[in-house]
Each structure stands twice: as C-alpha cells, then as structure tokens.
Design goal:
heterodimer; A: about 120 residues; mainly beta; six-stranded mixed beta sheet; five-stranded antiparallel beta sheet; about 0% helix; B: about 110 residues; seven-stranded mixed beta sheet
C-alpha cells in the first residue's frame, strides 16, 4: 500500500521568499511522483512529475522538485514566491506497476503569499 | 478541445434524493476517474474506468454507482444522497493513467 504525507496544511510565505513544500511517501516499490496545484474554485493542474531518470525535476511556473529515495521525499521548491502562487498544492504517488496509474494524494498544503 | 467538462457546477440535494453528476472528455482518453475532495483529506478515488464497459471501485465507492457506455462519458450516480456525501467532486481522464487532466469540479451539498 502507498501513502503520502504532506507536512504542514498551511504555509505562509512572503513575496520573493523561498517556497518549500514537503512531501514524504511510503511505498513498497519506487513510485512515480507528482505535484498538482489547485487555484481557488478550479480543478487540479499538473505542476511536475517524476517517473525515471534525473531526480531533479523542473515544472511549470518556476517550480522544481527533487526525488530523494533515501529520504523517501519529493519536496517542492520555488526560489522566489509570487502572489499568483497562492493556491493549494497536492503531492501524489502511483505504483509504476499499475498500468492505469491510480493516484494516491496527500492531504494538501495551502500556500498564502503575503506582500 | 474542451478537455474535461463537468455538470452541474453546484447542486443542493435533500437527504434521500438521487442525482447524476456528468463528466465528459474529448481527448479520447481510455482512463477516467471520479474523486471527492474533503478538507484536510486531499482527493480520494471513488470509481474509475479503463475503457467503455469496464469500471472498478476506488478507495471510497460506497453510495456511488458508475457506468461507462462510451469513451467520452463517465457519469457518477448518487442513489440515495446522505449528508456525508457533501463534498467537491472531480472527474479526471488520462491516456495512460499517469498525467491526469481534471475537470473544474461539482460542489455538492446534501441537507
């Protein structure tokens, strides 16, 4: 069975400051990992994903995440927060042996950006 | 392409009523799924389908039915609504199951 833990349900960052959202997973096999973003009253949008290969993954809107197998982590970062980054962020995992890639989501982290 | 569309956007039901949430996609995706989103719990998989005529249960299937008669449509039926089904419902689709595209959601309140 797989599970995802996102540390911190709410994060407040200043505009221009580093954004760091933490995600740890539990899985019997190395999973595929995803970060999704949800803007208010909208559906989820894929930010980035890790499947195989390079462990540092770059996504849209200046976000990146690094897969660290030894730490079972996939933390999301952005060097400089923008007001438009205010949203809820979800980490998700899937078992690579599941051909249909059913996703297991974390509980989400709400990001507030202050001027 | 319209992507993934959901109707209605908002719905209020009384306990015991039934209704169908509609989901359609125009990307010819084989995989479609329904999630519910509740505060502090992320998204949980209700049912999914890997093609027309093929459906299976997810993590929280009780109280919900699905069918898939065409590639494009994947409706979710609430047979007898309960207050515990108050939630935001998202439909998603994908070609190979990994990069899922989400609809805008249906906000359901059961009183």
């Amino acid at each position: 069975a797989q599970s995802v833990t996102q540390l911190g349900s709410h994060v407040s960052v200043s505009e221009g400051a580093l954004v760091l959202l933490r995600c740890n997973y539990s899985s019997s096999v190395p999973p595929y990992l995803f970060w999704y973003v949800q803007y208010p009253n909208q559906g989820l949008q894929l930010l980035l994903k890790y499947t195989t290969g390079a462990t540092l993954v770059k996504g849209i809107n200046g976000f990146e995440a690094e897969f660290k197998k030894s730490e079972t982590s996939f933390h999301l970062t952005k060097p400089s927060a923008h007001m438009s980054d205010a949203a809820e962020y979800f980490c998700a995992v899937t078992d690579p042996t599941d051909s249909w890639g059913k996703l297991q989501f974390g509980a989400g982290t709400q990001v507030v950006v202050t001027p | 392409n319209a992507g993934v569309t959901q109707t209605p956007k908002f719905q209020v039901l009384k306990t015991g009523q039934s209704m169908t949430l509609q989901c359609a996609q125009d990307m010819n995706h084989e995989y479609m799924s329904w999630y519910r989103q509740d505060p502090g719990m992320g998204l949980r998989l209700i049912h999914y389908s890997v093609g027309a005529g093929i459906t299976d249960q997810g993590e929280v299937p009780n109280g919900y039915n699905v069918s898939r008669s065409t590639t494009e449509d994947f409706p979710l039926r609430l047979l007898s609504a309960a207050p515990s089904q108050t939630s935001v419902y998202f439909c998603a689709s994908s070609y190979q199951g990994y990069e899922q595209y989400f609809g805008p959601g249906t906000r359901l309140t059961v009183t």
